[in-house]
Target: Carboxymuconolactone decarboxylase family protein
Amino acid sequence: MKPRVRPLPQGEWDDFTKSSPYNVFATLARHPLLYEAWRRFDAALQDGTLPARDRALATLRTAHHSGSAYEWARQARRAREKGLPAQEIELVRAPDALWSVEDQLVLQVADDLHYAGDLTDATWAALCDRYDEAGRIELVLLVAHHAALALVVRTLRVRTEE
Model:
């Protein structure tokens, strides 16, 4: 499909976009004010307090639910960079895969938010046992952010990098 918003030409990229030459960045850079604010928010979530594995599993499951090929490819690439094996990355798509209790909780958060737009009381209680208050907020924001981003890249028809 043809992009609805063309990526900014390379000659107009800022230093960040030059260092991260992905279509999502070059496309969102068409709105400089929002792009800068979004990058800060995205960076805060990516460098947050959650373990890298938890972030990777949450964003992968969210990308899977979103149906965005771009967001899946992006999150799979990030997960590989964080050391997740290819087999585990693919297992995130399998609803009946066996996971550790800790991993299953992260995946359940993404599932609950996708299907119900809320967490069940049981999921929330398990989160309270595992994470402090900031961690609970961060995980919910992480999933919501990536669900919204998937909607944006799908709607703008951002092309997956070759």
Notes: The domain at 52-154 is CATH 1.20.1290.10 (AhpD-like). The two ends are 14 Å apart (CA to CA). DSSP finds nine helices and no strands in the chain. Residues 80 and 151 are 23 Å apart (CA to CA).
